[in-house]
Amino acid sequence: MPADLRTLYSQLKKEFSSPRCDLKLCGTLLSKLKLGLIEAGLLLPQENPNPDDLAVTREILEIGAFWSIRAKDVPSFDRYFSQLQTFYVDFNDVLPPSPRQYPLQGLNLIRLLTQNRIADFHTTLEALPEEALHDNAFIKHPVNLERWLMEGSYSKVWGAREEAPAEEYKFFVDSLMGTIRNEIASCGEAAYESLPVHDAAALLFFQSQNDLITFATQRGWQVDLVSQTIVFTRKGEEKAEIPTKEMIAASLGYAKELEQIV
Predict the structure, then answer these.
(1) Where are the alpha helices (H) located in 118-243, listed in sequence order?
(2) What pTM was computed for the model?
């Protein structure tokens, strides 16, 4: 690997592991590194590559995947995770195991859940080693989330945020909760005309009244802070006019025609 890439790699590792990580700087370093890796023929390795260079390339892509989540850039995460499959699958017998592999595979599983890609979730899960499903915290977390979602145990999904095995997992759990809140809100609109603010906050897993008010405003609900009540806005039922006379006349015509046939 060229010396300039090694220098950029060292800068990236140092910055990304810093308590005050500069995400913008990391993004710039990653862009330069990916261009350099392409030029060096390491992003898509050819036959008999240097194992040390492969290990460094893999780590750069792994940092890029984690960086994408911190930057809240899901499409970027998808690209980095896709590029990593070459290193996880094709060169797994050349490279030592990566401590970041299972954390990233767990993140990918949660991403599939947030996109409601349940079939892809199970297909991806089946490709993992059996022991990982039971013993690895990074894999067990999304497996539990999927089960709780299917059960409708939304309070457990909410509690899973604090039990996340890595900080990046919380980003996708928050995304899941956004979907869950909208589903609960739709059911609430159909079931109730109004609710006390406190009950609505508990129902929607909001700990802050301001967050609840923001959500209610987005849904078009009326919030009365004096009475501490939320009034749901219901869509008017569409009324279809039934052409009664025309239907009766048509029915009589069919009856006469049937009499003539008989």
Answers:
(1) 118-126, 130-135, 137-151, 154-159, 169-191, 197-203, 209-219
(2) 0.79
